[in-house]
Amino acid sequence: EAGVTQFPSHSVIEKGQTVTLRCDPISGHDNLYWYRRVMGKEIKFLLHFVKESKQDESGMPNNRFLAERTGGTYSTLKVQPAELEDSGVYFCASSQDSRGWAFFGQGTRLTVV
Amino acid sequence: GENVEQHPSTLSVQEGDSAVIKCTYSDSASNYFPWYKQELGKGPQLIIDIRSNVGEKKDQRIAVTLNKTAKHFSLHITETQPEDSAVYFCAASVNFNKFYFGSGTKLNVKP
After folding, report:
1. Which of B1, B3, B21 is nearest to B11 (CA)?
2. Among A39, A94, B32, B53, which one has the highest count of C-beta atoms within 10 angstroms of its own C-beta?
3. Cβ separation A40–B104 shorter than 8 A
Protein backbone atom coordinates (compact mmCIF):
# COMPACT_ATOMS: atom_id res chain seq x y z
CA GLU A 1 0.00 0.00 0.00
CA ALA A 2 1.40 3.39 -0.98
CA GLY A 3 2.07 5.87 1.80
CA VAL A 4 1.42 9.59 1.87
CA THR A 5 3.14 11.17 -1.12
CA GLN A 6 4.13 14.80 -1.48
CA PHE A 7 5.28 16.77 -4.50
CA PRO A 8 7.68 18.37 -5.04
CA SER A 9 10.29 17.24 -2.54
CA HIS A 10 12.11 20.57 -2.84
CA SER A 11 11.14 23.97 -4.18
CA VAL A 12 13.18 27.14 -4.38
CA ILE A 13 11.27 30.26 -5.39
CA GLU A 14 11.78 33.98 -5.26
CA LYS A 15 9.91 36.22 -2.90
CA GLY A 16 6.63 37.27 -4.47
CA GLN A 17 6.24 34.17 -6.58
CA THR A 18 3.57 31.51 -6.23
CA VAL A 19 4.14 27.90 -5.24
CA THR A 20 1.72 24.99 -5.09
CA LEU A 21 2.43 21.93 -2.98
CA ARG A 22 0.58 18.68 -3.50
CA CYS A 23 -0.27 15.83 -1.16
CA ASP A 24 -1.69 12.43 -2.05
CA PRO A 25 -2.97 10.74 1.11
CA ILE A 26 -3.24 7.03 1.76
CA SER A 27 -6.19 5.67 -0.16
CA GLY A 28 -9.33 5.59 1.94
CA HIS A 29 -8.11 8.08 4.51
CA ASP A 30 -10.76 10.75 4.94
CA ASN A 31 -8.63 12.91 7.21
CA LEU A 32 -5.84 14.98 5.71
CA TYR A 33 -3.63 17.41 7.61
CA TRP A 34 -1.06 20.00 6.64
CA TYR A 35 1.77 20.87 9.03
CA ARG A 36 4.85 23.05 8.75
CA ARG A 37 8.24 23.04 10.43
CA VAL A 38 10.06 26.34 10.28
CA MET A 39 13.74 26.89 11.12
CA GLY A 40 14.18 23.68 13.11
CA LYS A 41 11.38 24.52 15.48
CA GLU A 42 8.36 22.43 16.34
CA ILE A 43 6.06 21.02 13.71
CA LYS A 44 3.00 23.26 13.64
CA PHE A 45 -0.52 22.45 12.53
CA LEU A 46 -1.89 24.37 9.55
CA LEU A 47 -5.22 22.78 8.72
CA HIS A 48 -7.36 19.65 8.68
CA PHE A 49 -9.64 18.30 5.97
CA VAL A 50 -12.33 15.69 6.44
CA LYS A 51 -12.94 14.47 2.92
CA GLU A 52 -13.27 17.70 0.91
CA SER A 53 -14.36 19.91 3.79
CA LYS A 54 -12.09 22.07 5.92
CA GLN A 55 -12.61 20.88 9.47
CA ASP A 56 -10.11 23.21 11.11
CA GLU A 57 -7.97 25.87 9.49
CA SER A 58 -6.98 27.67 12.65
CA GLY A 59 -3.29 27.18 11.98
CA MET A 60 -3.18 28.89 8.59
CA PRO A 61 -0.81 31.85 9.04
CA ASN A 62 -2.59 34.34 6.78
CA ASN A 63 -4.62 34.70 3.60
CA ARG A 64 -1.58 34.11 1.40
CA PHE A 65 -2.10 30.42 2.06
CA LEU A 66 -4.90 28.56 0.30
CA ALA A 67 -5.60 24.86 0.73
CA GLU A 68 -7.94 22.75 -1.32
CA ARG A 69 -8.88 19.11 -1.44
CA THR A 70 -10.56 18.26 -4.69
CA GLY A 71 -13.18 15.53 -4.43
CA GLY A 72 -11.82 14.45 -1.09
CA THR A 73 -8.71 12.90 -2.63
CA TYR A 74 -5.45 14.77 -3.10
CA SER A 75 -4.86 18.18 -1.59
CA THR A 76 -2.95 21.27 -2.68
CA LEU A 77 -1.49 24.08 -0.62
CA LYS A 78 -0.82 27.29 -2.51
CA VAL A 79 1.29 30.12 -1.21
CA GLN A 80 0.73 33.37 -3.07
CA PRO A 81 2.72 35.56 -2.91
CA ALA A 82 5.50 33.79 -1.05
CA GLU A 83 7.47 35.62 1.62
CA LEU A 84 10.86 34.79 3.14
CA GLU A 85 9.27 33.60 6.40
CA ASP A 86 7.32 30.94 4.51
CA SER A 87 10.49 28.90 4.12
CA GLY A 88 10.36 25.58 5.91
CA VAL A 89 9.34 21.98 5.49
CA TYR A 90 5.66 21.38 4.77
CA PHE A 91 4.30 18.02 5.84
CA CYS A 92 1.09 16.33 4.90
CA ALA A 93 -0.46 13.56 6.98
CA SER A 94 -3.51 11.37 6.64
CA SER A 95 -5.49 9.18 9.00
CA GLN A 96 -8.60 7.16 9.55
CA ASP A 97 -10.28 9.09 12.33
CA SER A 98 -11.31 6.23 14.53
CA ARG A 99 -7.84 4.71 14.73
CA GLY A 100 -5.92 7.88 15.49
CA TRP A 101 -2.77 6.84 13.68
CA ALA A 102 -1.58 9.62 11.41
CA PHE A 103 0.89 8.82 8.66
CA PHE A 104 3.16 11.55 7.36
CA GLY A 105 4.59 12.18 3.94
CA GLN A 106 8.26 12.91 3.40
CA GLY A 107 7.65 16.65 3.28
CA THR A 108 8.27 19.45 0.82
CA ARG A 109 11.21 21.69 1.63
CA LEU A 110 10.29 25.20 0.52
CA THR A 111 12.95 27.86 0.29
CA VAL A 112 11.94 31.42 -0.49
CA VAL A 113 14.86 33.63 -1.53
CA GLY B 1 -4.28 26.25 23.19
CA GLU B 2 -2.07 23.29 23.93
CA ASN B 3 1.65 23.81 24.59
CA VAL B 4 4.04 20.88 24.39
CA GLU B 5 7.59 21.20 25.66
CA GLN B 6 10.24 18.61 24.89
CA HIS B 7 13.64 18.00 26.46
CA PRO B 8 16.45 17.59 25.77
CA SER B 9 16.94 19.17 22.35
CA THR B 10 19.98 16.97 21.73
CA LEU B 11 20.97 13.69 23.31
CA SER B 12 24.12 11.69 22.73
CA VAL B 13 24.45 8.15 24.10
CA GLN B 14 26.78 5.24 23.67
CA GLU B 15 25.47 2.24 21.78
CA GLY B 16 23.78 -0.12 24.21
CA ASP B 17 22.87 2.59 26.69
CA SER B 18 19.33 3.82 27.34
CA ALA B 19 17.87 7.10 26.12
CA VAL B 20 15.02 9.03 27.70
CA ILE B 21 13.14 11.94 26.16
CA LYS B 22 10.62 13.89 28.21
CA CYS B 23 7.63 16.00 27.24
CA THR B 24 5.12 18.07 29.14
CA TYR B 25 1.76 19.32 27.96
CA SER B 26 -0.61 21.98 29.23
CA ASP B 27 -4.12 21.00 28.12
CA SER B 28 -5.71 18.48 30.47
CA ALA B 29 -8.15 17.55 27.69
CA SER B 30 -5.35 15.97 25.64
CA ASN B 31 -5.86 12.23 25.54
CA TYR B 32 -3.65 10.88 22.79
CA PHE B 33 0.14 11.08 22.75
CA PRO B 34 2.08 9.75 19.75
CA TRP B 35 5.83 9.68 19.28
CA TYR B 36 7.40 10.14 15.87
CA LYS B 37 10.88 9.38 14.59
CA GLN B 38 12.26 11.38 11.68
CA GLU B 39 15.30 10.16 9.83
CA LEU B 40 17.26 12.37 7.50
CA GLY B 41 15.35 13.13 4.30
CA LYS B 42 12.23 11.32 5.43
CA GLY B 43 8.95 12.28 7.00
CA PRO B 44 8.04 11.63 10.65
CA GLN B 45 7.20 7.99 11.29
CA LEU B 46 4.95 6.87 14.14
CA ILE B 47 6.89 4.59 16.46
CA ILE B 48 4.62 4.29 19.48
CA ASP B 49 1.60 5.99 20.97
CA ILE B 50 -0.28 6.03 24.24
CA ARG B 51 -3.79 6.96 25.18
CA SER B 52 -4.79 8.64 28.40
CA ASN B 53 -6.44 5.55 29.85
CA VAL B 54 -3.11 3.75 30.29
CA GLY B 55 0.05 4.69 32.11
CA GLU B 56 2.64 2.72 30.19
CA LYS B 57 3.05 0.95 26.88
CA LYS B 58 5.96 -1.09 25.62
CA ASP B 59 7.00 -2.33 22.19
CA GLN B 60 10.27 -4.26 22.17
CA ARG B 61 13.02 -1.74 23.01
CA ILE B 62 10.70 1.25 23.11
CA ALA B 63 8.40 2.24 25.95
CA VAL B 64 6.30 5.27 26.71
CA THR B 65 5.01 6.37 30.11
CA LEU B 66 2.26 8.86 30.84
CA ASN B 67 1.54 10.77 34.05
CA LYS B 68 -1.78 12.52 33.56
CA THR B 69 -1.69 14.24 36.91
CA ALA B 70 1.65 15.86 36.23
CA LYS B 71 0.89 16.24 32.51
CA HIS B 72 4.06 14.67 31.31
CA PHE B 73 5.02 11.70 29.19
CA SER B 74 8.33 10.14 28.29
CA LEU B 75 9.91 7.94 25.65
CA HIS B 76 12.38 5.31 26.76
CA ILE B 77 14.66 3.50 24.35
CA THR B 78 16.73 0.65 25.76
CA GLU B 79 19.80 -1.01 24.26
CA THR B 80 20.20 1.80 21.76
CA GLN B 81 21.63 1.04 18.34
CA PRO B 82 23.18 3.37 15.73
CA GLU B 83 20.02 3.07 13.63
CA ASP B 84 18.08 4.71 16.46
CA SER B 85 19.89 7.96 15.60
CA ALA B 86 17.22 10.40 14.38
CA VAL B 87 15.06 13.32 15.50
CA TYR B 88 12.24 12.30 17.80
CA PHE B 89 9.05 14.32 18.25
CA CYS B 90 6.42 13.97 20.92
CA ALA B 91 2.91 15.22 20.32
CA ALA B 92 -0.38 15.70 22.15
CA SER B 93 -3.87 15.61 20.75
CA VAL B 94 -7.49 15.78 21.81
CA ASN B 95 -9.44 12.90 20.29
CA PHE B 96 -6.91 12.31 17.51
CA ASN B 97 -7.47 15.67 15.91
CA LYS B 98 -4.66 18.11 15.23
CA PHE B 99 -1.36 17.33 16.89
CA TYR B 100 0.66 19.76 18.97
CA PHE B 101 4.29 18.79 18.62
CA GLY B 102 7.30 19.29 20.79
CA SER B 103 10.36 20.95 19.27
CA GLY B 104 12.16 17.65 18.70
CA THR B 105 15.13 15.80 20.18
CA LYS B 106 18.11 14.91 18.06
CA LEU B 107 19.36 11.56 19.29
CA ASN B 108 22.86 10.47 18.37
CA VAL B 109 23.87 6.90 19.20
CA LYS B 110 27.63 6.50 19.07
CA PRO B 111 28.95 3.10 17.99
Report:
1. B21
2. A94
3. yes
